[in-house]
Amino acid sequence: MIKKTAPLLLIVFFISGGLFLYYNSSPAMMQSETIYIKPGSSITGAGRKLEQMNMIRDKDFFRALSYLYLRSHIRSGRYRVHRGMTSMEIFRRLASGKVITRKITIPEGFNLYQIAARLDTHEITSKGRFLYHAFDHSFLEGIGIRALSAEGYLFPDTYVFPEASDPRDIILSMVKRMKKVLREVEGASRDGKRMKTHRLLTIASLVEKEAKIPSERKLIAAVFHNRLDRKWRMDCDPTVRYAVKKFTGKIYYRDLASNSPFNTYRHRGLPPTPICSPGKAAIKAAAVPGHSEYLFFVARNDGSHYFSKTLRQHNRAVQHYQRGKKTGFKDDQLRRP
C-alpha cells in the first residue's frame, strides 16, 4: 500500500510545489510601480489591487500568504514594488510597513500655511487636509491644544514622514517635539514663575519673525515684555502680514488698517495665537528676555535693529533708517571694528 501511495504523494508534492512557484513568481510584463494602500484596506483588497496592477498573479494566493505569515492586516501608505519581486516579497514589504518616506525640513518661522504647502510639495499630505485638522478644535483638544489652531505648537525641525501620511499623525509628531523642547526650556519667566505655554509661544513667534540676528533675540523679547507690562500695542509688522495672509512682499498702509485681531497695530496685547512656529532659541528668549528698558526698535535694513527707550529717540531712528532723512542722528549702538 505504501509503495502504491508514495508515487502519488510525490506527484502531489511536485504539482503543489509547481503551483506555489508559479503563483509566487512575478507576472509576465510586470513593471516597477508605486502602490498606495488606503487606511483601513484589507489584505484581500490590497491583493485585488495588486492583481489589477499586474504586480502579482493571483489575489487569492496573496490572501493565503497572510495565514503563512500569521498577519491579519497591512499598514497603509505608499510602497515601491520593483519588477521581478515575488508575491511573498511584496507581502512581506506591505506587512512590515516599509512605506516610502520623505525627509523634510520645516524652517523656524514657518506658519501653518507654509508648512502645509511644503508638505504638499513633498507629497507627504495634502495642503487642504493638513489645514483642516490644524484648525479642528475637537482634534486639537484631544492632543492637549486649547487654541484656535495648531499655529505655534508645531516645532520646526527636520523630520522623516511616510508619503501620503495622515495629517493628524504629522501634527501629533510635531506637537510632541514641541512639548519636549518646552520641557527643556521649562518656560521660566522674568520673575522666576512659569509662563503659560500659549503666551510663551505667542511671544516667541513674534521674536522669531523679528529677530534676524541671534544676539538681538533677548532684547527684542524684552521690548515685547515691557510693552505688555504697560498694556501697549505690540506694533509688530509680522502680525500684520499674518492678519492679511501676505507672507512676502511689501506691507502697505491699507494692510495696517486691517481690523483682524492679529493686527497688533490696531489691538492691544498679543494676537490670539502665535503667528509662526518658533525655534528653541526664540522660545528661550521669550521665556527669559534680556534686562532692559527698551520699548521700541527699528530695522537698520541690514538685519539688525536700533533700540530706543523713548518715542522721541525712536522717531529719530525711524527718520534716519526708514526714511533716509538727515537729522543729525547718531547711532551709538553700532558695533565698531
* Total of helices: 14
Tell how many strands the DSSP assignment holds.
6
Helix percentage range = 40-55%
* Structure classification: mainly alpha
Beta-strand level of the residues, as a percent range?
5-15%
| Average of per-residue pLDDT values | 89
Shape: elongated
Record the strand order, biggest sheet.
Answer: 1-2
Tally of separate domains: 4
Order of helices and strands: HEHHEHEHHHEHHHHHHEEH
Distance between the termini: 104 Å
Instruction: Summarize the main sheet.
Output: 2 strands, antiparallel
Radius of gyration: 30 Å
Low-confidence runs of at least 5 consecutive residues: none
Ordered list of secondary-structure elements with their pairings:
Blueprint (H helix, E strand, L loop, with lengths): L1 H23 L8 E5 L5 H10 L6 H10 L8 E5 L5 H10 L4 E5 L6 H10 L5 H8 L2 H6 L15 E5 L4 H19 L11 H14 L6 H13 L7 H8 L8 H4 L23 H8 L8 E4 L5 E4 L2 H11 L16
Antiparallel strand pairs: 1-2, 3-4, 5-6
Helix pairs in contact: 2-3, 5-6, 9-10, 9-13, 10-13
What does this structure look like?
The protein has 337 residues and is mainly alpha-helical. It folds into four domains: 24-96, Endolytic murein transglycosylase (Dna Ligase, domain 1, 2-Layer Sandwich), CATH 3.30.1490; 101-184, Dna Ligase, domain 1 (2-Layer Sandwich), CATH 3.30.1490; 186-293, no CATH class; 295-337, no CATH class. It contains 14 helices and six strands. It has helices at 2-24, 43-52, 59-68, 87-96, 112-121, 127-134, 137-142, 167-185, 197-210, 217-229, 237-244, 253-256, 280-287, 311-321; strands at 33-37, 77-81, 101-105, 158-162, 296-299, 305-308. It has a two-stranded antiparallel sheet with strand order 1-2. Strands 3-4 form a two-stranded antiparallel ribbon. Strands 5-6 form a two-stranded antiparallel sheet. Strand 5 (296-299) and strand 6 form a beta hairpin. Helix 10 (217-229) crosses helix 13 (280-287). It starts with a helix and ends in a 16-residue tail after the last helix. The mean pLDDT is 89.
